[in-house]
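Human: Cast an eye over this sequence-structure pair and say how the chain folds.
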Amino acid sequence: MSRTRIPISKAEEEARIRRERLDLSTAEIGLTVRTTNCLEERGIFTVRDLLNSTPDELLSISNFGEKTLEEVYFALDRIGYSRQSIRAK
């Protein structure tokens, strides 16, 4: 039996990719082991968890300072989440 594929619009494909990126672990986006450990100790395991955290919440984590926050922003930016979209919460 021949199957035909239903074309997916570019917008639908981009939305699917963004949803998949939300489920990536903090380690999968290229954060250092130290940063990943800091986040996991606070219960932040995925990109979704990270995006639901405010900068102040992140900075309140032990051993998590401005330099670490910049590392997080850089990693998120690499997968399509800009600092402006993060702070717009």
Observations:
- The chain has one domain: 10-87.
- The mean pLDDT is 87.
- The domain at 10-87 is CATH 1.10.150.20 (DNA polymerase; domain 1).
- Helices lie at 10-22, 33-41, 47-51, 55-59, 66-78, 83-87.
